[in-house]
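Suppose a colleague, Dr. K., hands you the sequence of a protein chain of 240 amino acids and asks what its three-dimensional shape might be. Before reaching for any lab equipment, you can write down a predicted structure in token form. Begin with the sequence itself:
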Amino acid sequence: MDNRTNTIAGWVLFAGIVALGGTIVTGEMYRAERPEKMGYPIEGVEPEPGQGGGEAAEQPAAFYLASADPAKGAEVFKKCTACHVAAKGGPNGTGPNLWGVAGSGIAKRPTGFAYSPALSGKGGNWSWDNLFAWLKSPRDFAPGTKMTFAGLSKPEDRANVIAFLNTQGDAPLPLPAAPAQAKNPAQAAAEQKGHGAQGDKGAKQPVLTEQQAAQSPGKNIHDQAAPAVNGRAAQTKTGH
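The predicted structure, expressed as tokens, is then:
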């Protein structure tokens, strides 16, 4: 009876060892490594600027408007025609008629459209920067707006749409010139350091008196505060 019990216990222990070993081997074979980039791409959806890919920082509106193309903007504006028209005298739709919007007061044009308090309370005019920010994300520009459009992620598309809307008015405004490119911070710091090293050199050196200069053989002293002493000749002072 004891032998049978020991045999059963032995087989149970052996089975446990085999199961544990199989688990370890299986885990090593099918171990999954953490991916370098979490998530997966969705076809047809573009990432926002500055997200996932080390894109260059977005430039000011003027940078893109300097080379904006109204014809390309008209193509992009087709996304907006479900709610807007930009023709003179055209009707309001889900959104207001956008004829003459560039440079006009925000939510102040006499179109008869009922603007949301979120937008009508903004104040100011539709400047290039305001239009640029609005088209990027209406909800960020005016939280609580009735505008449901998510926005245009590409700054070039926004600039082209603004250039197109600028032509849809009685007096189109001149588009801004491209701003001067700012210096690289590291380059500017290096240049500043270089100028300081050259321009401040004389200011940081002590000015020797005549007595000190006379006691410094082998040095050429050229300074407005002390006469030159060349070679090893000592300077002989005369009575004053």
